[in-house]
Design goal:
The structure is a homotrimer.
Chain A (H helix, E strand, L loop, with lengths): L17 H20 E3 L7 H7 L10 H22 L7 H27 L1 E2 L2 E4 L1 H21 L5 H25 L8 H18 L16 H23 L6 H27 L8 H6 L3 H5 L10 H30 L7 H21 L3 H4 L1 H8 L10 H30 L25 H9 L8
Parallel strand pairs in A: 1-3
Antiparallel strand pairs in A: 2-3
Helix pairs in contact in A: 1-4, 3-4, 3-5, 3-8, 4-5, 4-6, 5-6, 5-7, 6-7, 6-16, 7-13, 7-16, 8-9, 9-12, 12-13, 13-16
Family (chains A, B, C): Belongs to the ammonium transporter (TC 2.A.49) family. Rh subfamily.
Membrane topology (chains A, B, C): Multi-pass membrane protein
Protein name (chains A, B, C): Rh family C glycoprotein
Chain lengths: ~475, ~475, ~475
């Protein structure tokens, strides 16, 4: 199977001992750390009966579970089915797309519960978790799934696990800086999840640049049914994005408003994506790559501002613009990034997450800076931006400045972190494949000898037709 | 690519300027109209803190978001994944099925928020929206997705957008007449969504009759995996239908009851569909077309009565009958409609929505007419039918009469509207394809040159075997 | 089509009259029994307005619908999409997997509403149903879906309906013994659903042993895209399992805790499954069979204990172990069971449900036996185990003993019931196929003559290449 002619040496992609070692080592570490640190929060603990009285709650019906869990499940679907299937568009990398996304997300949520727990839910030496922690862990892993999109098909599962370990760590630090030190609002994660995740991933793929990648060019496309599988991912991301952006907003009107703004932005985004997809092709045909990806930019671009008083028409404007930017990005920027900047971005996360994420951060800063007591109401104003305690004297324009600072911090963290992690992943010990073997499930998966691959072989120039 | 021998002239299906123009024009119109009219309702507005006190609510936990949003998300999945994937059964029209459904629904929900808003949520010159408006917008678009089923594969995306514009408008007018003027109950939309949507679509496809459609007969079938993709749509529609029928019912027992009735009706429907699917084939084999569609008739047929005291066994009876009617329809009525009435109904919406919708309207009228204070309780009776204010003197039998009138109005609106809109869609400017090019994604989509289509070509009589 | 050379007689698989007869007969029976017995429970009844006052509820918002329905919908998806698509992995049995699962589940939930209703919701001669009954009916059917996994591809739909009738009956009896007589806790059904369902199915498939099954060996594998369809099932089961295990837990902390424990267990399970899948293959490649199935063992294995104070790290440990056991089972036990014990287990339910179910029962017994007032709080302790009334004097260790007894009872019911039902299914009247026709949709379904099957024929030794 190994044909080392294009490389100085044959790459060893047999992970028989390395992958199990990493998986088991890390799971043992998780068990030990969870044993030392993680306990149920009050509302998930059997002591709740006593605590409830202290918290002045009158019934089990007021448990936060009932106000967060439906949104949590929607987010959960986005991470595992949404991202997983969105990446199945490649003709022979569906197992890797769904399977490795499953692996890294399952590990990532455990590590995220710890990292985010230490920063946000640490009390008397214990991390106390509840449904909100589960949502945040999924969010954190979302940024890793985004980065995975840039390096899809070019990395081994071990590299993905190593990247997940570091990226979750950096995500949590960045999030802590933004939310706690800068007191920035970012409920849907335009900055913390999308901008950070995408530029992190783009930096990693830049460091891992493969000059000979055109050797696997025939496998970088889709087939008819792989494009339909990808649409499952697209639609679940699109439909549940209102839940994503509202999942950890304040209860009540903020959560309600986040869902509406996101719904509007996404609807508008579909129309401008279709318009530009058709307009930018000579024959006016629609391109599935755009429909699968750019239609989602509207969700990213209102990630920061959805819980603010962006208003429905503001959401339509933001969604419209982000659909255009994203589609134009697929047509013009992605080839440019690859040829000039040597950034090989398999899924085009620069168009779906990076640029819309920046738009989201900027829109959030502007919306915050433009806030007035008239628009939010006296109490609503204070509540929406949490201008209490030490932040009592923040004005909207100062808040807008801090929001903008949050974008810059996220970018810096992404570039620095991505460069370091990229360098680590470049070590020749992780079992990645040679360039001509990329985008091919056969390397890491037992692939059925099915009719399809027979036909595939028939039409593939350098393989014999018989099995 | 164009072979104009069967038609007087070659049809121009290049939409490079037309589709973008329509999409962008309409999105700009949406932005302007939303800017002028649409604002957040009280429970989504930051002023909520003040309004809450006026409404005598004690906490953010009582926000309607928590009582409607899970149902909304289920309905959302039905519209985008349910309808979208249900229509992927055609062997070479999966992109169009999922993609055009996505396009028209994304546009439709924006226009529906406006149209329904003007009729139902207009206050002091503004449309005030909340989660219930999102559900209603999805419902309205559901009727367009149904009509799309009749013309699937035979129309251009521009035609679909034009149809959506008109159909949403007419839907809203019809809904206003039924709910507000006739004071009819129709929570699950047997009349407003299914009867209206299906007969509208059937009228449109009648007007657009294509005499030479047998030229694309080889593409009107399914392939093995396209039938499995369609089952994703079927199952999501089936599973979430209890949410559909209960989504906008009154809080409490009405919503609870709607879900139970729908669950029962759908379960029964599966058994009678399977029975008749097997019975009506010479070899007793099951037909995927029936399983994909007729199993859903039970949801349609309790759309009006689900929130009434239909009772679980009543639901089983209605579900059983509708499964039989729908399956028989696929075997006998669809060919008849095509050959005799020149109604080319791609997905068989006459069997899945039109007939079961009529059954639903009739069952609703009977159930309403049979209501007694004994069955509903004194308070429950008034609450269930909202017999307050000017409707204080309505008796059940009068209500039954008005329910029946609702069916007739919906039918008239559908026929008249469908005829006019069909005539508009017949104009030769919308970029629809010639008959021999129907049911083929290649016209409006960049389709990957994959192995499958190679094989397809191999077996297709009039195409060369080599790519 | 029938080539009876390998069997003494040609099997008649034409179900034209038999399948409709069974379906219609049973649906009529359901209608009659529902008519006699089933009514709406208080919270779904229009009389609720009056009853609410008696129950001292202040508003419609406290209707149990709002606290159970989102979980119900997740469970519903698991039963119909989860189990249905998980079984589509076979190359030519996707219609049967999804379609027969749909059929048996739709029938099963009706019969389960009755059986479980008589045991648990019977009052004044009527079964009063609400959303919790719907969840329990889905649960009960889950055990039938599990058993279906063992006999997938080898039985006729009539056999499946007969099995469903008996298995639902036995399930309900077993559940009554465990929950009511032994006062055992089993919210996620490790014992009642998984252990019972799996050993029942394994016993049935043992009785139905087919010595010539290797004649259809070429159809027992997957193709590339069928493995991706199966991953849809896997992921929905995995994502929604926290809802499954918490759906009928007590409101408040118990439900909250169940979700967290299950989330943790499943995450850990993915890592150990991946580790062992790679480790047990010579070339270190991952096997889709393991990823599709063993990753779910963690949900099964905390089914009993999830609502207890298992703690997050306890869940990680249980999940890790079950992933290992399940993967090892696929590699070593399944071949052993087939060759030595003549247990032909198509989907490997022994690895996914039987062994993890036993682990779940044992972990539950241990966790119960180890409970202290210190860990649960004084009130929480009594509430968690419902140590009230006649169970006031139960100690944790006695409870642990009863939990263990629950495992034994479930096993005995499964073996005895499976043997009897297997014997009934062996009767030559149900229309099952000959061994060489197994795992082939063509027997019971109209299958499209598509390119794929053409190619399939091309490579299949004993079929002509032309259609």
């Amino acid at each position: 199977m190994d044909r080392p002619r294009h490389q100085g040496m044959a790459k060893n992609t047999n992970l028989r001992w390395r992958l199990p070692l990493v998986c088991l080592l890390w799971e043992v570490a998780m068990i030990v750390l969870f044993g030392v640190f993680v306990r149920f929060g009050a509302e998930a603990d059997a002591h709740w009966e006593e605590e409830k009285r202290e918290m002045n709650l009158t019934s089990d019906m007021e448990n936060d579970f009932y106000f967060r869990y439906p949104s949590f499940q929607d987010v959960h679907v986005m991470i595992f089915v949404g991202f997983g299937f969105l990446m199945t568009f490649l003709k022979r990398y569906g197992f890797g797309a769904v399977g490795f996304n499953f692996l890294l997300a399952a590990f990532g949520i455990q590590w995220a519960l710890l990292m985010q727990g230490w920063f946000h839910s640490f009390k008397d030496g214990k991390i106390l978790i509840g449904v909100e922690n589960l949502i945040n862990a999924d969010f954190c892993v979302g940024s890793v799934c985004i980065a995975f999109g840039a390096i899809l098909g070019k990395t081994s599962p071990i590299q993905l696990l190593v990247m997940t370990l570091f990226q979750v760590t950096l995500f949590s630090v960045n999030e802590y800086i933004l939310l706690n030190l800068l007191h920035v609002k970012d409920a849907g994660g335009s900055m913390t999840i999308h901008t950070f995740g995408a530029y992190f991933g783009l930096t990693v793929t830049r460091v891992l640049y493969r000059p000979n990648l055109e050797q696997s060019k025939d496998k970088q496309g889709s087939v008819y049914h792989s494009d339909l599988f990808a649409m499952i991912g697209t639609l679940y991301l699109w439909m549940y994005w209102p839940s994503f952006n509202s999942a950890i907003s304040d209860h009540g009107d903020a959560q309600h408003r986040s869902a509406i703004n996101t719904y509007c932005s996404l609807a508008a985004c579909v129309l401008t994506t279709m318009a530009f997809s058709s307009m930018l092709q000579k024959k006016g045909k629609l391109d599935m790559v755009h429909i699968q990806n750019a239609t989602l930019a509207g969700g990213v671009a209102v990630g920061t501002s959805a819980e603010m008083m962006l208003t429905p028409y503001g959401s339509l404007i933001v969604g419209s613009i982000s659909g255009i930017v994203s589609t134009v990005g697929y047509v013009y920027f992605t080839p440019f990034l690859e040829s000039r900047l040597h950034i090989q971005d398999t899924c085009g996360i620069h168009n779906l997450h990076a640029m819309p994420g920046l738009i989201g951060g900027i829109v959030g800063a502007i919306t915050a800076a433009a806030a007035t007591e008239d628009v939010y109401g006296k109490e609503g104003f204070i509540k929406a931006f949490d201008f209490t305690g030490v932040y009592q004297r923040r004005t909207p324009s100062i808040q807008g400045g801090f929001q903008a600072a949050g974008i810059v911090v996220s970018l810096l963290m992404a570039f620095a972190g991505g460069a370091i992690v990229g360098a680590i992943l470049k070590l020749p010990i992780w079992g990645d494949a040679a360039a001509e073997k990329c985008f091919e499930d056969d390397i890491y998966w037992e692939v059925p000898e099915d009719e399809e691959s027979d036909v595939y072989r028939m039409h593939s120039p350098d393989k014999p037709a018989s099995p």
